[in-house]
Write a structure and sequence with these properties.
By secondary structure, this protein is α/β, with parallel strands linked by helices. The chain contains nine helices and eight strands. It is 47% helix and 17% strand.
Amino acid sequence: MGPRGIITIDGPAGAGKSTVGRLLAQSLGYLYLDSGALYRAVAWQARRLGVSLDDPEALKIWLAGFAPEVTADARGFHLVIDGAGVPEEIRSAAVSRDASRVAAQPLVRRWVTARLRHLAQNGGVVADGRDQGTVVFPGAAHKFYLDASLATRAERRRQDWPRENDPPPLAEVMAEIAARDLRDSGRSEAPLRVPEDACVIDTTDLSINEVLQQCLARIKGR
């Protein structure tokens, strides 16, 4: 496989990026970088502090002093804000919607990109997101793009719903994901798209292990 380089996994919501990314990092002994967690952290903390998500100037002033502790290892991507770990609330549908909104702000994307590149400066990382292979790490050694049918992605999100709450109907989740797809692919700054040199994997009818094995086989040259 050669030197410990950078591996990117891009794709829309529910395609399996995070799960495959973590398992791939564990299999290779690489660090795992979750770009989405940084966008969610920005959205979550800004909302808590009353910073308008639609005011670029306010976000710019606030971001200048926002410095969460970020660590990564093969097991996961860890954030500490104000001395405490980030709660599960950061993975909620509401925070995901807010994260999509702030992700359209160029200054927020630059803030996230700088942190990801700093963490990856020594190589040996698996980074997942929506622009990792196109913008953040265009020179990555291996690039993957995961996708799946809208219904499959929505059902996966319903299965991951917090156990204390009943998940919304499938049609509602599908509509939410479709709206997110439109925002992500239509934004002017680093839109979601397939990297030209990426290996595209349709995960609709594949198990997580099957996707993982396809990625490992390509990385190892089989």
